[in-house]
Protein 1
Amino acid sequence: MLNKPPCSDGYLLSPITSNFSVMRKDALHQNLTMRYFSRSRVTVRFFRVFHLLLLSTLVLGCKKVIDVNLNDAAPQFVIEGNVYSSPGPYYVQISKTVNYSSNNQFPSVSGARVVIRDVTAGLSDTLVEIQQGRYATRSLTGVAGRTYQLQLFAEGKNFTATSTLPEPVLLDSVSFEKISRPGGKTDWYAVINYQDPAGISNYYLFTMLVNGRRINNTFVYDDRFSDGRYVSRTLRTDSTYINPGDSVTVTMQHMGKEGFDYYSTFSQVTGNGALQTISPANPISNISNGALGYFLATHSNTRKRVAR
């Protein structure tokens, strides 16, 4: 680990990649207004009886059948593609959304023409469909500092997206924070440690495995308050329970703002492992022509450690 003071509050967790079910809540508000009775003519007992009868009438009479009309929506293209700094091949997945009443089988899109251009070097790679809806590069190589453009034609529609592969940032190490709880219980949390480059905007995505099992949380940060500083930050989640002896693997992805926008809004929509979410919406996409999903050039590296 670099010998620099840690910064545990450097990054703001964005409160975020999926779409796509719609919930509607209708609230029925009731106002109960009571007139005051003359004390000389109404006894306390009469008032209580009247109050009980009035409430019973309201409860029995305020039943309402609400018919929710879930209209069918036109299917939308969902495109997911990445270019990494590690050797290829890289993949683009194409599918379509389905109606609310349908099952969760999202149809794949075959027969598309998919090209990724290295705009900086003036090179192009036409992807090959290796299975239904999944396309792979043949010769493309991700190089830091270069800009990549996705060009996709499917079912009479054109889609484009652009992303620049940032310079690498290394995940220095993974450590652990231990918090004692009443009753002798100790909670374990993974801590990420790395140096943020100074003078440029940086955006990060962290994912975690515990004993090979993916944790259902996405950690997305920018460096607005920690530019150029050494960062030590705890990955907190209600759904992760790390115990002594567990193998913890953390992957860092350093990406552009388009990736930060997608994953931060994805985290908000899905609740990021919490019980409540914001109003349903689609994560912000950098793909043109109304497509959902993302095309991102990212630098990725992984650290693994056993909790002790």
Note: The chain is about 10% helix and 35% strand.
Protein 2
Amino acid sequence: MPRRPKCASELAARHLPVNGRAVAASAAGPSRGFSRDSWAALFVVNVVLLTACADDLARSRDILFVAQRPGGTEDTYALHVADLTTRRLIKADSATSRSLPAWSPDTRSIAFIREFDDHSQLYVLDTVGGTPRQLAPQLDKFLAWPDWSPDGGSILFTAEFPDHHADVYVIRTDGSGLRTVLQDSTNYRCPSWAPDGRRFAVSAWRAGRSAIRAVEVESGAAHTLLASDTSYLDCPQWSPKGDAIVLTIIPGNTDMWKRDPLEPWRTDLGILDLKSGQLRLLVGGPGLNNYGHWSRDGHWIVFPSNRHAAPQIDSRPLRERFWSLEIYIVRPDGSDLRRLTTNGYFDGHPSW
């Protein structure tokens, strides 16, 4: 299978002309060693690569996200990346919001959270315009972070107590087989299935130490992939190829629930290479750059950010900083950073 092109960044690396102009013409220079036919051939390659880049997004599934327009409810939308049009899929009501939507692997269903003030519920919508069905109604806690198994048969999620301590559960998508996978004194967030369907990654916080752990679904056996006592490591997402994890990095080792809401938070995105164990910065400041999710082909990462509003927004209460979040995408190598939504209200919780 041919390797995916990387748009202008790859054209430059290959020393190919962009827009009919040489980016870096080889050691011989454009006037030596390149015939007119050679430059014509390079131009054709250029066009093919740029077209492939456009098709890369045109063929992708819609991005799910949550938005609260002025005077409206917090609803779930689909963003069609090719033309940036949106359509509302799930409407909330005056008493509850809709959050953390996630496509099933076959794109036929959406798992989401119905959120009240002090608790929330897990639902699955099987048909747009249909009636959502509730999963795990016996858990009267704050449920969050649903993630479909690769075969579409199960959903991982967390159930949080009033003190923000959270356990990890798994349930089959027909509502049967609810069981606890992780339950101890650690606070767990954002479970994410590995492509093999046997493991998941999860963020773990306990006593000032943060970690990303890999956990066996059946046994609950866990081992640490990355640990820090100087940063809060949050919301890991396993790549479709299984070779990397994107995660949120929050500087400082204070529990995120105990931080001063007026503090000028900064959050970055990083990628953990699972073969080498190396962590590299993907998207740095300014502002909030949170909760990356991979596209299904692994070519892009979508995330919410208010980097366009920082630093002016940083002195305002944290909740108001969330209102300025918009949807961005970036390549896993850090290139082609793009802002997809531009408005004056909250856009968040994107997933591909």
Note: Residues 7-55 form one domain.
Protein 3
Amino acid sequence: MSKITDITTRRPEAWYAVRTRSNFEKNVSAELSGKGLDVFLPTFLEGRQWKDRKKVIELPLFPGYLFARIADTNEARLGILKATGVVQILGHGQSIEPVPDEQVQAVRTLLSANASCLTHPFLREGSRVRIRAGVLKGLEGFLVRLKNEFRLVISVELLCQSVAAEVDVQNVEPLTLMDQQRIA
């Protein structure tokens, strides 16, 4: 095959959500990373207390799921599906569905900012906003008020799950109608 046809037949890589068996997220992440794949397992730290001790443990932000960046080819799919603990790559019927880069990057940004994150009921509609200052600058999501606190909620639509972080309402600006149409 010539280089020209090789380039045109390549499919671009995208993020895909991979469902795992219960408590297999870290094992699957390690195995896929060992195969040279770009894998993202969003995790957070949580304090747990037992009768005899306290411990901070790392938990998956979306239990049972991780993200892998691959091209949508049979070979790439098979490489993931053969990993121990993988149940499926999310999609509809026989086709897999990519997770938008913006959603994965938003979760990465939220976690790397060391903001206090917590799971949140899935949101699909609401007041869309952008953070204009601080460590979360540029992040877009839904603004929710809970008692006297404001939270930015980032939804991963394919998983139907959301994550939230506290934000200062002074650093929030509503998205214009044009911005919201660009996202839709």
Note: The chain has a mean pLDDT of 86.
Protein 4
Amino acid sequence: MSEKQKGARRHNKGLRLWTHARALAALPYVTPIVRSVREHRLEALHYQRQAKLLADRPGRPDRAALIAHQDALHDAQRAQARFDEALKELQSLGIVCLNPVKGQALLPFVHRKRLAWFLFDLFEKEPLHFWRYQDEPEDVRRPVGVSEEDTSGTHPVV
């Protein structure tokens, strides 16, 4: 195999691009993963905060406080491991987690030869209702629509 072919293969493995139709079809699979990412992140944050509160108590800790602190640290590590596992599964699909606590993720696609992102929001009635270009600020949200000429659903209307 030539170096040119190897480079082309590496390039193709880079960013997995989605169409709107494929993203909609994947929602029943993606939604529970994003929900798991969110829940595990919240759980890890809870136990980390609990461990910090126990560690920051004034005075010398007694045996019960030391055990509670160690338990909180252990629970935080387990929750973090579950979060990392769920996040890895999301990333294996080519989806980027934008904000795990808010349940937001990004699915890459190309629009007018520019990288763009479908914005997945766990708490929206329509989770893939918005999109934005890569180089736009995070608060930009363009409504998704499908042009009449394109039956494949790959090009949102701007």
Note: The radius of gyration is 21 Å.
